[in-house]
Amino acid sequence: MVHEHLPFRRRRKLLEVGSGVGAQTEVLLRHWPDVHVTGIEINDAQLSEARRFLSTVPWAEGRYTIVKADATQLEYGPSSFDAAFLCWVLEHVGDPARVLSEVRRVLVPGSPVVCSEVLNATFFIDPYSPDTLRYWTAFNEHQMDVGGDPFVGAKLGNLLQSVGFRDVQTEVKTFHLDNRDPVERSEFLAYWSDLLLSGAPALLDAKKVEEGVVEGMRKELARVARDPNSVFFYAFIQARARAW
Is 32 in contact with 26 (CB distance < 8 Å)? Predict the structure, then answer.
């Protein structure tokens, strides 16, 4: 859903902002065999893991550069890249417009940019799970407290246009999982449960939730996973535009 029909044909120098542990980098290199990816990341642990992981990928050899960099102050000149890719990164930065402005500055005019971002207001599960919803609210509030934006996906159109991108298009991409595909629903519920629980230590330390809410959520998610009629819904936004 993130990588289908990306506009990177005939592109050679792609900038990936917030490359993390290299998971998206590997997919980009696999799908686009002519491209060289420059991935920028600020977290040392993720930089180290990205380099380790990509060194094990045969088709990545010689086709990527992973560097530590601040996305609000890119050390590249104009026309350094002919495409850009951002995925789940603007939700973590305090000034997404500044990041997008820097991306536009270093792109060749006419180059495509693709941004995929969260819209956490869309999360829904059934059966009704009140502790999970309490936890999810705290999760989003904590992200805002530390300078992020769990709803930035809905704002991508405004952000891209405000810094000078043109031909801005947005698409809502949804996960709507129910009895039509019980296997995928089961797999995604397991993934989502792990994702939610991974944030519990930080939320407990910040006193955003109590242990009882975390334990209640754990039980609710297990119940949802067992329910033969459970429903999971979530949407994210993918925006595409061109630099001018």
Answer: no
- Alpha helices by DSSP H, 64-129: 96-106
Return the CA Rg of the chain.
19
Number of domains observed in the structure of the chain: 1
- Whether 59 is covered by a domain: the verdict is no
Secondary structure of residue 116 in the 3-state scheme: strand
What span, in angstroms and rounded, lies between the C-alpha atoms of 77 and 38? 14
Gap between the Cα atoms of 90 and 152, Å rounded: 7
What tens-digit pLDDT sequence spans the chain (244 residues)?
999 999 999 999 999 999 999 999 999 999 999 999 999 999 999 999 999 999 999 999 999 999 999 999 999 999 999 999 999 999 999 999 999 999 999 999 999 999 999 999 999 999 999 999 999 999 999 999 999 999 999 999 999 999 999 999 999 999 999 999 999 999 999 999 999 999 999 999 999 999 999 999 999 999 999 999 999 999 999 999 999 9
Is 8 inside a domain boundary? no
Neighbours of 3 (CB within 10 A): 17
User: Going by DSSP bridges, is the β-strand pair 112-118/231-242 parallel, antiparallel, or unpaired?
Assistant: antiparallel
**In the numeric block, which tokens belong to residue 67?**
């560097």
Residue 125 covered by a domain: yes
35, 8 Cβ separation under 8 angstroms:
yes
**How far, in Å, CA of 182 to CA of 35, rounded?**
37
Alpha carbons 154 and 144: distance in angstroms, whole number: 15
Question: Can you give the residue range of the structural domain that contains 225?
Answer: 13-18+71-242
